[in-house]
Amino acid sequence: MMDSYLKDRCLSYETMSGERNMTVTSGAAQGSILGPDLWNILYDNLLRIQMPEEVTVVGYADDIAVLISVRRDVDAAQLKLNQAMRKIESWMQRHGLSLALNKTEIVILLEDAGERGNVDGCLNKTEIVILLEDAGERGNVDGCLTF
């Protein structure tokens, strides 16, 4: 049954010039009952990767989040993020997957916005939106958080 679910799939759709067909080679159909289970099976190994101390990877729906706990030390947070992202990127490559950097966000949760300081970096030379929880503003990462 799984074999028939994953092979010989075709997407039919209407255009102004008539019906078109496209071979589907990856992904699960939107609203698929089996899709979330396949995601859970595949990503279970990613969620179990040994991460640096005080770094946790969690999954929700078809997203992952890297949670890093540090006390007012942006440099330590950057170091831990780089270490975690190297491991995640390596896992993704081994499984033929890639991160959607254009959809990636860094969220900094602060007790006091006055103590936020600066975060220098970008993810694989891609600017990442930084959400500053306490300040209610958006900024861009500058520099490089390369991994």
From TrEMBL:
Q: Which UniProt keywords apply?
A: Coiled coil, Nucleotidyltransferase, RNA-directed DNA polymerase, Transferase
Keyword Zinc-finger belongs to the record: no
Q: Where are the transmembrane segments?
A: none
Task: Kindly list any coiled-coil regions of this protein.
Answer: 67-94
The keyword Phosphoprotein is assigned to this record: no
| A single MF term (Gene Ontology) | RNA-directed DNA polymerase activity
Source superkingdom: Eukaryota
Among PROSITE patterns, the record links this protein to: RT_POL
Reverse transcriptase domain ranges (all copies): 1-130
- What is the official name of this protein in its record? Reverse transcriptase (RNA-dependent DNA polymerase)
